[in-house]
Known about the structure:
Helix content is 42%, strand content 22%. The chain contains 4 helices and 4 strands, in the order H-H-H-H-E-E-E-E.
Amino acid sequence: MDEHGYISTLDxxxxxxxxxxxxASFMGTAPTPIQGINHGAGDVxxxxxTYPEDRSIxxxxxxxxxxxxxxxxxxxxxxxxxxxxxMDNGSGEVTVASNDEMGGADDLDVAVRNRGDLTFRLYVxxx
Length: 127
């Protein structure tokens, strides 16, 4: 093989290497879906306790009792899942935000967080 043949072969190998590297990088970027409810109640309630930074959703709910921000956050975060967020101030548990009845729910995932004398419970399940 002469000098021109080596250069053409090297050029083809380098071009194919770039194509394979690009294809491999695109194939690995798809997000993995959350399976089951293992990523459910605990993670979501932890996020609600710290987001947003200036005044968390749970702090706002504890102070004002307005479930608007909590409902919006849960609807966006728990798509495809059912939830029931309750608040207990010592005199009984009251539903603050919910998108279904828990009556016949199987495989519940439950998380509990406290804010002062208030206890928040988030129940998450699939229908």
